[in-house]
Design a protein that fits this description.
Layout lengths: L1 E5 L2 E7 L4 H11 L5 E18 L4 E7 L3 E13 L2 E11 L5 E21 L5 E5 L4 E5 L1
Antiparallel strand pairs: 1-2, 2-7, 3-4, 3-5, 3-7, 5-6, 6-7, 8-9
């Protein structure tokens, strides 16, 4: 992973074999990022996504092991109990031009990924909402 900070922007280039979410957490820890938005694209060969079921209040994991283009990565960074917390969704294109998408748990980079982070001046926290069964932004 390689990254560069420009005032309130961070540009990250992931390398073949990097874990996407793990790499973001590493940068956000190192740069002490407490709030921001994330966008990106790239290519992966393994994808771990989840689909949240409101009835059971749990994520169903779905794993794909194939070459795919990341056509859209979007999300945010905040803090929960002082630790980096990312909320990311991803859309990936398959060879037949169909797509898979969902809540991103982790993705393994097959070629590269280019990610842009808009850093907010301040901190956004997270708290668990027992009615919803998810961690929500604590504004």
């Amino acid at each position: 992973m390689i990254y560069k900070r420009f005032a309130n922007k961070i540009v990250i280039r992931l390398l073949k074999g990097d874990k996407l979410v793990e790499s973001l957490h590493e940068v956000f820890d190192k740069e002490d990022i407490k709030a921001g938005s994330i966008t990106g694209l790239g290519a992966v060969n393994k994808l771990d996504i989840g689909f949240f079921n409101p009835s059971t209040k749990s994520y169903k994991p779905i794993i794909f092991e194939e070459n795919m283009e990341v056509t859209n990565l979007v999300g945010n960074v905040s803090r929960k109990d002082g630790e980096v917390y990312t909320h990311l969704h991803i859309v990936c294109g398959r060879e037949d031009a169909s797509t898979v998408s969902g809540h991103l748990n982790e993705a393994w980079i097959s070629l590269t990924a280019e990610i842009f982070v808009d850093v907010l001046d301040g901190e956004i926290g997270r708290k668990f909402d027992s009615d919803l069964g998810i961690n929500i932004m604590d504004l």
